[in-house]
Every structure is written in structure tokens, then in C-alpha cells.
Amino acid sequence: MSGQIRTAVIAIGGNSLIEDNRQPQVENQWDAVRKTCQHIAMLVSEGWQVVVTHGNGPQVGFILRRNELAAHEVHTTPLDLIGADTQGAIGYMLQQALDNSLRALGLNKSVISIVTQTLVSLNDPAFQNPTKPIGSFTDEAKAREYEKQGWQVMEDAGRGWRRVVASPQPLEIIEIGAIRTMIKEGYIVIACGGGGIPVVRNPKGELRGVNAVIDKDRASGLLAAGIGADLFIISTAVPQVALNYNTPQQQNLSHLTLAEAIQYQAEGHFAVGSMKPKIEAVINFLERGGPQALITDPANLAAALKHEAGTWITPN
After folding, report:
1. Looking at residue 246, what is its pLDDT?
2. How far apart are CA 291 and CA 67, in angstroms?
3. Packing angle between helix 79-104 and helix 26-45, nearest 10 degrees?
4. Which DSSP category does 170 fall into?
5. Alpha helices of 71-117 — where are they, by DSSP H?
6. Which of 173, 176, 266, 192 is nearest to 234 (CA)?
7. Dmax over Cα atoms in the chain, in whole Å?
8. N or C: which terminal CB in the chain sees fewer CB atoms within 10 Å?
């Protein structure tokens, strides 16, 4: 995809969809999405062909909670269908908000969402040790009821019990061909929502959904490599990657080489629940031949593209 048309994959995090966890109402989600899409539209106005990926963790949790509250009235929803539901709903919000932002800039571009499946392996070690908590906190008695329904559960740092599922490594984006075609036709594509719906192939070669979640940044990096993106952007809650984060010794970084990213990751500078999967995704993208990556927050995206903010990561 390199050449005259520069392609960027931008992975937007939870803060781009829910700015305040205490106010997750849909109208507030719309406000956050519209702000985020103004930044993405700016990227398009700079001449980039854009593919957008997004998280869905809070929205999946809300649907699971609705399942719990309504279980005595209607059937529950399996996790793979919840992933599809959230891809459609969030995709719709991004499509509409991005269309409006583009029109405000005088840009005539079509936006399309692709419900995306991501292939994983049932032999992935993550299935033997599920650690990704989903849904609301509960007491042990209720957790044991979930166990009888086939869920795995664990106690979460003294805060209560939660269901846990595997978070396997993404191996292949099933709809990569359709995504490439849409990019070639000039569409702004929204794909790999929530990391994509985790699927495996059965002995007949048929796709089947599995009870798991995929890290959105890892799947986004795989997608970026698969379409030959010129730039992989991770939009997150902080303006720059930092060493010794949230300590008096914090050191913000404007640039990292691939070797430095690998070194700092090995030294434990990046937390498991926040920056570590983002750095891993960037490392995987660069190791697959990607030319450059950028980590920053939405408000600093314009400045970061001018190398005035953010953290750039390059092969050397």
C-alpha cells in the first residue's frame, strides 16, 4: 500500500468511546466518538487513506450485564455474537460521526464497517489459562453458578469474582481480502472491532466462534501488516510512551527504535493491562516489515504527525 496513497491503521482505545467510566450512557459515548472522529477526519484531510479499529470492552460488559438481568425472561447471548453486536453498533457510531466530520471539512469520502473475524488456534496456551476478566463483579456463590454454566471464574484482587476467558494470539484476519478491496476503492474502513470475533477452524475446515476475546491492539497490528500499512497508530489515554510511568523518575519518550522497544519491554517498563500490549503490537508490526508506528492520545494526533508530540517507533 506504500507509494502515492499513504495508508494508516489507527487503533482507538476505550477513552475514545467512553471518556468517563462513571458516565457511560450512550449520549456520552456519542460525544466521545464525535470528538475522536474529528481527529480522524483531520488525518484524512492530510492525505492519508485510513483504516479504523476500535475497542469494545465496556460495551461487551454492558451486554453481559443485560443478559444477567434478563435471564429469567429471554435467552442469553454467546460471547461471539456479543462481539458481532458491538462491532455493528460501534461501527455505526463511527461511520456516522466520521461522515459528519469529513463533510465539515469538505471531504467526500465513504465510510464502511466490516464485521471482522480473527482466526486463533485452539492449541493457544491461553485456552489452558484464561485470564481476561469480563462482565460485572459478583460474589463467590454466583460465580459458582457461572461455573455450572461452563464459564471459568476467578477472584479479582479482593474486589469480587468475575468470569474469565482466554485471550489468544491473533493469527489471521479472515476478511483481509475484503478490507484490501475496500481500501483500493477509496473507502475509509472500520474493521477488527474489539480485536475481531475469535474463530477457529474445525476438522472440516469450517469456521466456528469460540469463547474468547482478542487484544484489539495485537489484532490491529496484524491487520496493519496484512494491508501493508505505511503507518500504524495506536490512540490511547496518554500523549507519549514513558519509562518508569507514574513515578518521580518518569521519562517520556519521543522516539524508540525496535531494539529499544524490545529492551524496555523485557525490563518491565510497560504494564500488562495498559501499555504492554500496545508495545507488543508495534513490535510485531515492525517485525513483519512495517515501516513506522505512532502512539499518542487523540488530542495530540495532529501535532504527533508533525513529530511535535507522541512517541514514534521505527525499525532503526
Report:
1. 86
2. 43
3. 60
4. P
5. 79-104
6. 192
7. 60
8. C
Residue 204 is among the residues annotated as catalytic for this protein: no
**Residue 100 annotated in active site:** no
Alpha carbons 237 and 32: distance in angstroms, whole number: 13
- 77 vs 241: CA distance, rounded Å: 37
As given in the structure block, the three cell numbers for residue 117 are 473475524
244 is catalytic: no
Catalytic pick among 35, 109, 132, 276: 132
Task: Say how far apart CA 35 and CA 21 lie, in whole Å.
Answer: 17
The verdict on residue 1 lying in a domain is no
Residue 225 lies in a domain: yes
Q: How far apart are CA 98 and CA 37, in angstroms?
A: 5
Contact 19, 30 (CB under 8 A): no
Return d(Cα 134, Cα 153) in angstroms, integer: 10
User: Cell for 112?
Assistant: 464502511
Q: List the catalytic residue out of 15, 56, 284, 300.
A: 15
Whether 228 is in a domain gets the answer yes
pLDDT digits (tens, 9 = 90+) for 103-121: 999 999 999 999 999 999 9
**Annotated catalytic residue within 56, 91, 194, 278:** 278
Active site residue 88: no
Q: Which amino acid is at 141?
A: A
- The confidence score (pLDDT) of residue 15 equals 65
Indicate the number of domains in the chain: 1
Domain that holds residue 37: 6-314
How far is residue 289's CA from residue 177's CA, in Å, rounded to a whole number?
19
Judge whether 164 lies within some domain. Answer: yes
Q: Is 15 a catalytic residue?
A: yes
Residue ranges of the chain with per-residue pLDDT less than 50: 1-3
Among 162, 194, 165, smallest CA distance to 68 is for 162
Question: How much is the pTM?
Answer: 0.92
